[in-house]
């Protein structure tokens, strides 16, 4: 039997899909290396999301539901203690913004009390405290020196856990951009996707004065947690303007990105994917954990940062202006593409999986 790996992650309309998505990628690499992987989920919402995303990827994961509140992880402990003592997992990987020091302390006490060899890991991007785990993963570009004391540290963009399809892609930057990629991630609480489409195709703005821009095609990713009424609105826009193509399920995301000449996305896993492919990208933030890391990407020259959706009501116009300027500026897009690909190589999930198996 392979090593037994448990992964704690959740996803829903509040915390979006990012935690489960990146853990699925690591889980897939672990499974390919012979490990037994099981997700530990708080509730049915997370289980449904895991199933939806698994169907998209055509790979299934074992999971158990604790029937607790995702934002109150200490509710897990009574159930987890018995599970850990009885089943003796080799590794417990945690990915949740709601975990506090007391959670880690109790998990470590359970392991010690039962004389187990279980190792622990945490995926971090908030720097709340020095996490008492055996392995910490943080794939930000800029990480404070000596912040973590974990014996095993996987730090930097090379550890971004991306799907296998994002490794080793050849990307061409063509002279005149003709196709845009538009994403907000798993959820779009500010409806920026719809606002951008309306600015380009309906409003009486700069785009209406540039015939070539109106011939642009736009590939739009419809996130798994977009509201039903909002999806209906986007479908109505796509029906009205043939240049708009909606993608509600995209198994070959890398192939779709490769076919596009520039992109617009929120900070998150999609940004790392676009960088791995080499698509010139303008990025915006819409959550606290996104702000500093997208600014670091901007500083590196790999992307252009448009601002924070929550604070700046001119972001839509700024993004469209960037798109207009980028259409015939091949050199500008090429520089961004080259810098992005140097930052992210697409092999992070495999590096994480191998590191986990090496310490257990």
**Shape designation:** globular
Helix content percent band = 40-55%
Low-confidence stretches: none
Rg, nearest Å: 21 Å
Tell me what the structure shows.
- With 360 residues, this protein is α/β, with parallel strands linked by helices.
- The protein has 2 domains: 4-164 and 346-358, Rossmann fold (3-Layer(aba) Sandwich), CATH 3.40.50.11190; 168-343, Glycogen Phosphorylase B (Rossmann fold), CATH 3.40.50.
- It has 13 helices and 13 strands.
- Strands 3-2-1-4-5-6-7 form a 7-stranded parallel β-sheet.
- Helix 5 crosses helix 11 (315-326).
- The radius of gyration is 21 Å and the shape is globular.
Q: Would you spell out the secondary-structure blueprint of this structure?
A:
Blueprint: E1 4-9, H1 18-32, E2 36-41, H2 44-57, E3 62-65, H3 77-87, E4 91-95, H4 101-113, E5 119-123, E6 135-138, E7 152-155, E8 179-182, H5 192-201, H6 211-214, E9 217-221, H7 228-240, E10 244-247, H8 253-258, E11 262-266, H9 269-277, E12 281-285, H10 288-300, E13 304-308, H11 315-326, H12 330-343, H13 348-358
Parallel strand pairs: 1-2, 1-4, 2-3, 4-5, 5-6, 6-7, 8-9, 8-11, 9-10, 11-12, 12-13
Helix pairs in contact: 1-13, 3-4, 5-7, 5-11, 9-12
Descriptive key words:
360 residues, Rossmann fold, 13 helices, alpha/beta
What is the structure about, briefly put?
This protein is of the alpha/beta class and 360 residues long.
